[in-house]
Amino acid sequence: MTQEKYNIKYAVAAVRGQLKRTDNTMAICSDLLNKPLCDLSDAEQTELIEYGERLGIKLYYFKNSDRQLPRVNKVLGFLKGICFETLLDVGSGRGVFLLPFLDEFPYIQVRSIDILDKRIDLLSDLSNGGIDALSVEKADLCEQPYPDKSFDVVTLLEVLEHIPNVEKAIASAVRMAKSYVVVTVPSKEDDNPEHIHLLTKDKLTSYFNACGVKKLSFDGVPGHLFMIAKLEEQ
Asked: What pLDDT, on the 0 to 100 scale, is given for residue 178?
């Protein structure tokens, strides 16, 4: 039942990472905490997950589901058609995009940043629990936390509508990207009090053009606007 309930890889990593972060490892064999995820037996995986459930670790983020958001599928479909080695995902939140991305691109190095401690803890637990392709850092996009052209692709998925200084955020993303910046935003007004902008095609075009980015393509998925910014070769 446990094996069918969760995406095992992420649930196990989350348990191991949280046990390490909270220094709550005395009741678990060190081998279970440090063995590569792929080397854990079904029985060992079940033991870790059941222990995590008893401790009240939030594993519902990693429940199996046949449904994947259309906007996530749209972004993954685009990424499957390009060549890249590194990706920066800004505002990864609970991993709605990040976890499917890691499934589809297990060998791509991805950096995740967020400004909320609880989101950083959640994703850092995955990284520290054995998801080696993932690195996580608390950082503010508007402060451009990495040097120019640090990542092949920068994803801003359901992020810009939350940021007061949209222009500064976009400029930072453009500078940190080598090849592409990928954006999704809500396409209509909603009742989310954290959404402080409605970013239309015209507004996004204006902001990216101001950064010198002219090659923009737009599409839509239900309730969302999807945009790809292709950066000029230098």
From this structure: 97
